[in-house]
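Report of the visiting student (M.T.), summer placement. My assignment was to run the structure pipeline on a short list of targets and document each run. The first record concerns Exosortase A.
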Amino acid sequence: MNTLTARRRTIWDALPEPWRAPAIRLAAAWLALIVLFLPDWADMADQWWNASTYNHVLFVPFIAGWLVSLRLPQLRKLVPRAWWPGMILVVGAAMVWLLGAFSGLNLARQLGAVALLPASAVALLGPRVALGALFPLAYLMFLVPFGDELVPALQMITAKISIALVHASGVPAVIDGVFIETPVGLFEVAEACSGVKFLVAMVAFSAFVANLFLKSWRRRVVFVAFAIVTSIVANGIRAWGTIYIAQSQGLEFAAGFDHIVYGWVFFAVVLALVLGISWRFFDRAADDPMIDAEAIERLNLGPLERGTARPLILLATFAAMVLAAHAWASAANAQEADVANTVLLPEVPGWERVAYDPQLVWEPKAEGARHRLMGRYRNADGRTIDVFVAVYAEQTEGAEPGGYGQGALDPSTGWAYNGEGVAVPDARSEMLLGNGTAGRAAATFYRIGETLTGSRTAIKLAAMRDRLLLDPRAVTVLILSPETRDPQAGAETIKDFRVATGPIGPWLDRIAIGE
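After the run finished, the structure tokens were exported:
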């Protein structure tokens, strides 16, 4: 018998008899779930490996496994049992995945695919084992690559912290959204400088430390909140430091300094600071067990005690439900709405079509759209407005009108988000700045059925409704964008153009059907 075989037999022999069959069923279920949802797992793995924001996620499976090993001596004292109420969590996770598949929202698909792992563990092992392994199971949710949605808000927060510190340090500066102008040059708090990768890593790290070293739930919450705030403030200080150094050493030296500091070295310093300040408040002794199996066994779970299932019947039900979700998604994604073969930008009273000649080339991103239209209009006052229309026959992965990185701001171009614009009815209003000089106001409208909205969430919910009912409807995206750095002037131009078109909803409907 070789060493590996002997080690496997030792692990198997160490499992109490009541645990052996449930452990096999759980392992088989997890393997089947990963294979069935392999495209989602492959997308996540690609982000873990290739996106620096999510490199820390590579450690999550090992951390979760280690946390289980710490609990194993106590978990072995509990008796696993298949449990029907656990299927509620399975159904919920499958629905999250299904809604993500319907709307083309990858985050929801990935969240559902990952959530099926702890949900199936609860169903196959029962409530008492789930309580004993609650934190490791919940920690698996950090496998989901989240955080990109926070980038615009974090950019603005970092910019505000930086400008406050710049002024406090006696450097004259002017802020315009995420751009800070000082005597030596213009600085941009770009997406890469938002601090999102440190924030999401800090959330995962602080949750792990809080569970490992703190017993009090109040202290855990305070510690995680402190770690999050410290991460955000530290990133603002880092951005200020780069700007401050540039005033005396020049832009090139400051850029080099920032590249050295802005990495895992910076994150390590912040971690050391958080741990150094919090260490004296840690209240779990080194020899304290992570869970108390006897206390869990004594718990009166009330109605939750009922619902014991035959394992194979529960497993079959679980498989049927997950396969049904896949079949439903496949049927919905096979359908698409009818759209015209040809669409054109119409004439607008009081505005004439003119050549598109921008100060800086701007083209919204509309991946997966069936049609894209771009044109410039000018009125008698000489004011111009650029009009972009995209018509989608479906909302699926790769065709996401409300997806991150889609719309007025293409992150791969020289344009950057520069704050919210003046409110425009039924639209999302934002200001853009290109190469530090060219400005734009942009109002984005989404049209589906009778709904006209600027909300990405609303358009996603409408898509989910359509897919659930197997009733696809076309989505039309309209972006109105005058060239200006004055939010009020941009809003006035957009308002005047809307008055000339008449109600935007019907106007877009006529474009979508080719009238």
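The longest strand covers residues 438-448. The first helix runs from residue 3 to 14. I thank the supervising group for their guidance throughout the placement.
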